[in-house]
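Suppose you are handed only these lines of text.
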Amino acid sequence: MRAGLSPVRDVVKMLVTRAESSDNHPVLRDKNLIPLSHQHQHALALCARIDRGTHSPDICLEPWLAEIQFIFDQEIRIHFAAEEKVLFPAAEAFADLRALVAELRQDHETLRAFFSRAAARTLDQPGLREFAATLSRHIRKEERQLFEGMQRLSPAQLVELGARLGHELAAASQACIVPSEATRLRAK
Ligand SMILES: [Fe+2]
Ligand SMILES: [Fe+2]
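From them, the structure of the protein bound to fe (ii) ion can be written out as follows.
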């Protein structure tokens, strides 16, 4: 067991997938941050499919751009807003996280510009791949640096944070992200 885990029963530490681990060992995630981590997994799965499925410069972009537009409208738009309204201000209470939060806020603006280009169908193949790399880097920063740092909050503060995040994310809870026939990964 990792050093420093609280024995307090109302802060149940749960395993999240290896996808967010920096060293291929599962990381422990407080249950109040799990809904955000689940959405990170959806986005990382899309990034992985883009990385593996868009090498050729003559790919058909339309299904990829349509899927990016869909996941932004259904989930990421709400996810970004919840982070900016609830998570980032809570993180800024820690002086050593403020520079990271400023970087993450800037990432959101960069990513929103990518999403706008996808919706306008002006994102080309190199841009699509740059988008996936930028999004996956952003998520890994949140999982490995921000979430790890925020788990210093007290159990009561984490519960309150989780409740506020749950409220903000409720609108995205019914979203169902399904790859299209054109963007699904196939066994080689
Ligand atoms: Fe974010
Ligand atoms: Fe996030």
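What can we learn from it? The domain at 13-172 is CATH 1.20.120 (Four Helix Bundle (Hemerythrin (Met), subunit A)). Confidence is low (pLDDT under 50) at residues 1-25.
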